[in-house]
Write a structure and sequence with these properties.
Shape: elongated
Helix content: over 70%
Structural class: mainly alpha
Distance between the termini: 53 Å
Number of helices: 9
Number of domains: 1
Number of strands: 0
Order of helices and strands: HHHHHHHHH
Strand content: under 5%
């Protein structure tokens, strides 16, 4: 590997770490939403901001059920509202940082396997604005989808009605998450 490539890899890692720290600072600085107590807000945030819960699933589901009454209302609001502005700003800043790293990465100097030349060319043509907007939209949709899943975990009065309404709208990006939440609730 050339020294220049080694330096680029180090810079990529630095940018990724900076983006992750930016996201974590935004989360830590956030005030509890929807009038939740700090304890319930921490459970809410861990759930809606999760990208993978893996081994924590059982414990987190128990936490959701323990606080089901305030969380049911919070999840319904989060489905409608999406993430708060400060979290969207943090997601945008992280996406900007990732794009800056991506922009500086000399992909043409590497042999990339499993990706067509056409796809690599399309990857190279994506504008900063398109990339950042896409990443922010994905974050917002993921946040809302997690709220849908959380509502499915805790159930309660009106949860199935909300989930069914979302699931029946094939144009809603949350429809699949709602259908899965209903299936999961039915298995319990």
């Amino acid at each position: 590997m050339h020294l220049a490539n080694h330096v680029n890899v180090r810079n990529i890692v630095r940018w990724l770490v900076a983006g992750a720290l930016t996201m974590m600072c935004a989360i830590a600085a956030a005030q509890p939403r929807y009038g939740l107590s700090p304890e319930v807000s921490a459970v809410f945030d861990r759930w809606v901001l999760a990208t993978c819960i893996g081994a924590e699933e059982r414990k987190l589901a128990e936490d959701l059920r323990r606080h089901s009454v305030p969380l049911a209302a919070a999840f319904r609001k989060a489905i409608a509202d999406g993430p708060p502005r400060d979290e969207l700003r943090a997601a945008r800043a992280a996406a900007e940082a990732r794009f800056a790293v991506r922009e500086k990465f000399p992909i043409q100097e590497y042999r990339v396997e499993g990706v067509s030349e056409k796809d690599l060319a399309a990857f190279s043509r994506v504008s900063r604005q398109s990339y950042v907007d896409d990443q922010v939209q994905r974050f917002a949709t993921g946040y809302r989808a997690n709220a849908v899943a959380g509502l499915g975990v805790i159930g309660g009065p009106g949860a199935r009605e909300v989930l069914t309404r979302i699931a029946s709208n094939r144009n809603d990006p949350l429809a699949l998450a709602a259908r899965e939440a209903i299936k999961a609730a039915d298995r319990r």
